[in-house]
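Hey, I'm writing a tutorial for new members on how sequence and structure tokens pair up, and I'd like a real worked example in the thread rather than a made-up one. If someone can provide the structure for the chain below, I'll link this post from the tutorial.
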Amino acid sequence: MADSPPTSRIARTRRFGGLVAGQGIRWAGTQAANRLRSDEKADAATGERAAATARELVKQLGQMRGAAMKIGQVLSTVDFTAIPESEREEFKQTLATLRDDVPPLPFNKVEKLLKDELGEKLSDVFSEFDEEAFAAASIGQVHKATTTEGKRVAVKIQYPGIAEAVETDLRNMQMVFPLVKRLAPGLDVKALATELRERIADELDYEVEAQNHRAMARAWRDHPFVHVPAVDTGRSRRRVLVTELLIGRRFEEIKRLPEAERDRFGEIVFRFFFGTLKHLRRAAGDPHPGNYLLLDDGRVGFLDFGLMRVVDADYLEGERALAQAVERGDAQAVFAGLSTLGYLPQPDTFDPERLLAQIQTAGEWYLEPGFRRLTPQYVGDLLDRSSSPRSAFFEEMRRETIPPQALLIRRMEGLVLSTLGELRAGADWSGLGSEYWGDAPPSTPLGVQDARFWGLA
């Protein structure tokens, strides 16, 4: 169990400042010493410093929770190009422990909030309640319980004082970014800050999440290989969310499964998020692996719908038409689509052929036909070629913008790609994708089942 996270503005600011100052001094010392080392020894020293930084980030940000922890979670999806390649995966895995292995608070630290939100004695609401949390994240932690009707449920409780702590973190997080830039020079830290602000505002209100969750559970009910747990509306509140309890294998265990099982899991992940966008017009903004469980019956359970946007039908159709134009290699249609959707503030300054090449590069993993096995190394290389300052299209990127309705779509695509890379999943991703943006017929046996569920076959 962890101690209570610091909630006062001064304490949290001091924690941020201490983290950045201490690591900044150590990085400066390492870089100074590297001038006297061989290239091989300098790379090794930088890797050691990166690993130490990762451990300290996990320790400090994990203890703080709130927006501080969100920074670590988001960074676990970033490719740290300044770190020797042999050290990158370990660094990302260390940061990713914030996603799945957050130390929960003792029950007495959240008990009063739970009782206040429910407005009743726990014994009047639950016949059994496990006071030891079985999962914890940046905003709240989850306990197992049994309702008075005998149903097993998961009870997510928001940390007391976390809303105030988050606001302080959002003001202080600029201090962390110089340190992050040393590890990932190509990262757009301004975009990261905007993303964190948008994400956390919704996540602090569990009633918003409950609405999203209920819509997802209704839409995917009785699906052959996807399961979204039901929400217990009567017991959920603004800072308490009660859902059906799911038990299954988590992502680190799934990554060790045989290749065929990983491929099946990866296809289901792809189909769930792209299918949610196509059939429900909902872009899920937090598709990280900590929100998936492989159930004993082979279905995959999906959790956490705090950040979600319903995309306008006309806008989504424009995105689908854009993908089809890229697939055809139609540069003029790509240019027209990007202009209409709002990606090009000054359309006349762009070359259609360059725009087509840019999107073909960024989306090659699911636009180029044929089987492709994704790996962390491939994902890192693709991001380097398509979205870093070293990209051949960096000048175009600096003059482009992402329309508000596309923000979560692009984030979803990026995190799904990162997840599939970690999983080392293989498929004809273009064949799968064409079912969603091009209405192509099912390309796999799972696709046939999915099409029947949605009434398309």
